[in-house]
Design brief:
- This protein is α/β, with parallel strands linked by helices.
- It has an eight-stranded parallel barrel with strand order 1-4-5-6-7-10-11-12, surrounded by six helices.
- β7 and β8 form a beta hairpin.
- 43% of the residues are buried.
- The model has no long low-confidence stretch (mean pLDDT 89).
């Protein structure tokens, strides 16, 4: 299992929000590219970048993203504010290894097939955010009538190379994880699953690793020192 540190960008800073809510910044670091470099120096094999401004429709942070790509050597995956197929193409052509597509994928599933055929499945990840076991979209504000597993099966068929599963019920709260939803995906989906949400301890990572989780994204627990990144390399 590979643990991926999150670099969330808002207003030009690396931040950590509570439940994705603007104004709840608990961590604010001035230079996201330097933060990314530090994670690589600590042993990160991959970086998870989120453009929070893009996700909230209030601008974009492409210059900072380019700086991260230039200063680091490890693969990057990125989401936030990808509203058109050309937005995805721009990131892929900029040098992001894998784009993470959420709301647009739910609204226009055929885009996943098109991008997968154009760039390769391994560069296309679909983000499934779950609240009360239903996938939510538009920054967690709108609910669908399908479960994460139903969508994951569909997107696997349409050519997605991986699924990023975020459990909104526990995300950012540092209260631990709910294992049942991730287990259901691991048991039924053959493409890699990236898990995010609520991880607070090495015990959480141990359980996820033993379950067969491929990748895990961690934000708040790393930035608040609840988990030391070097300790995650054991998994």
């Amino acid at each position: 299992m590979i643990v991926i540190p999150a670099v969330d960008i808002k207003n030009g800073k690396c931040v950590q929000l509570v439940q994705g809510e603007p104004g709840t910044e608990q961590i604010e670091l001035e230079n996201p590219s330097e933060v990314a470099v530090q994670w690589e120096q600590k042993g990160a094999q991959r970086l998870h970048i989120v453009d929070l401004d893009g996700a909230l429709g209030s601008g974009e942070n492409i210059p900072i993203v380019k700086e991260i790509i230039e200063k680091t050597t490890v693969p990057t995956q990125m989401g936030g504010g990808i509203r058109t197929i050309n937005d995805a193409r721009k990131l892929l052509d900029t040098g992001i290894n894998t784009v993470i597509i959420g709301t647009m994928a739910i609204k226009h599933p055929e885009i996943i097939t098109e991008l997968s055929e154009e760039y390769g499945a391994e560069r296309i990840c679909v983000s499934l955010d779950s609240k009360n076991n239903k996938v939510v979209t538009h920054g967690w504000t709108e609910s669908t009538d399908k479960t994460p597993l139903e969508f994951a099966k569909m997107f696997e068929e349409k050519g997605a190379g991986s699924i990023l599963f975020t459990n909104v019920d526990v995300e950012g709260l540092l209260g631990g994880i709910n294992l049942e939803p991730i287990k259901e995906l691991l048991d039924n989906i053959s493409i890699p699953i990236i898990y995010s949400g609520g991880i607070t301890s090495l015990d959480d990572l141990k359980v996820l690793s033993e379950m067969g989780t491929d990748y895990v994204v961690i934000g708040s627990a790393l930035y608040k020192g609840l988990i030391e990144f070097e300790d995650t390399l054991d998994f």
